[in-house]
Design brief:
It is an enzyme of class 2 (transferase). It holds the Pfam family DAHP_snth_FXD. One of its GO terms (molecular function) is 3-deoxy-7-phosphoheptulonate synthase activity. Its EC number is 2.5.1.54. This protein is an alpha/beta fold. The chain is built from eleven helices and 14 strands. Strand 7, helix 3 and strand 8 form a beta-alpha-beta unit. It is elongated and about 65 Å long. About 45% of the residues are buried. The mean pLDDT is about 95.
Amino acid sequence: MIVVMKSSATKEEVLRVTDALIKKGMQVQTNKGVDCTVLGVLGDTYTVDKERVGMMNGVDRVVSVQEPYKKANRKFHPEDSVVNVNGVPVGGGTLTVMAGPCSVESFPQLEGIAVQCKASGAQILRGGAFKPRTSPYAFQGLGEQGLDILEEVRRETGMPIVTEIMAPRYVELFSEKADIIQIGARNMQNFDLLKEVGQTKKPILLKRGLSSTIEELLMSAEYIMSGGNENVILCERGIRTFETYTRNTLDISAIPAIKKLSHLPVVVDPSHASGLSYMVESLALAAVAAGADGLLIEVHNDPKHALCDGAQSLTPEAFDGIMHKINALKSIMS
């Protein structure tokens, strides 16, 4: 449940209500907004006399939360959350672009792409060190060597890095080396992994599963947040439908839906959504128009010879052209 305090409530009144709830065995999350303070209450709230709480000084109203996700719920946290990634904000009205190759192939390759992407306006560098592939015979990434290359390029360019984790045993390593830990679509419901990254304070980029509902995505975010890590960024990357022309079907409606249900920032991956490079521009612009907080775009210096997902990768020159249109659209909407 949530307790909405009056705009005139004093700090002492807020503290008194909080203490009363804690004494009943509840966990209380305090969210101070522009107009009022909201207390998110977690636990067996059936044991709480809601009518009595509602009569306490400073309380405006008590609201039951029916949805199974609590910490990710906008009712608990009315204001938009902003995740700080080494000085780069994600959410809160900004548009953050993460760009780079699907897979790290070498230092020269990644450095060259990073320099060009940064010059075009990308703020965060993406690159896969460990790659989940449908075929066990496909390129699986450079592993820890790839992480080392990402670190080196970060030092050269100053760009924070986002890269995908595959298993709980790598959490400590990724916490040390990555700026954002990505949970891929195939691992969205890897609950052991979600619990482990929930014990860190690192920003987490959580991708929607291939056939997952919006509520299932938010419940996966809840696993992370319930562990204490509230630095979660949600990513819509297309879902599996009956259509086979594109790799996936981008669910544009997920952006306003999630923003209504949750306070967490939402970014969109138009590259994986379509699997086709010529569609990336249209889908990226549609995502910005729908209110996305960021984009995750694959860029490769030689897409035809990329070791992974070349068909959906843009050249740096094509990415630069798209960025001009994205910035123009964003300025119109601001």
